[in-house]
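Page 47, continued from p. 46.
Same chain as before, 198 aa.
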Amino acid sequence: MTRTEQKERTRRTLLATARRLFAARGYAGVGLAELVQESGVTKGALYHHFTGKTDLFRAVLEEVQREVAGRVAEAAEAEDDPWAQLKAGCAAFVAAGADAEVQRIMLIDGPAVLGWNDWRAIDEATSVRHLTDALTALVADGTLPAQPVAPLARLLSGAMNEAALWLAQSAPADLADTQAALSRLLDALRASPAPPAW
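Result:
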């Protein structure tokens, strides 16, 4: 194994261990010494890759965000119609957010550990950007009424994040009800068809 491969392996090990521990006990419940011991690396190796525990958490959060964005994109791409793509992507986001690991890392500890502004910047680069792109296309093709997209994207993003946090405290059956409510909410945003000309 080359030195570069060894460095990448160490980094991946640190990320995997940190993700497991942060998901299980939260950021505050995991110490740096434990992260190093569980990873089987030295503290120097950790500091070679990350500036500290917060930087390691940021890398874990970014990884989780990318995975959720991937699930959303995969669900959307399975549909042919742009409107169906939006709805499928939103449903996939809520389903991903119902996962305890995603909730803990992305929705609970993310803003608490990194601060609202840094967390929002990461969210903007993944989830909100994809949502904004989809909404922009739907406004352009007349599926949604002409309107500024930025506030709509943030309202929908906030609603889905809140729904995912609520699902953490509710019964598993509530996921289907939440997705159905989201579907109705999205359908209510659609432009009314023009009345027939007489």
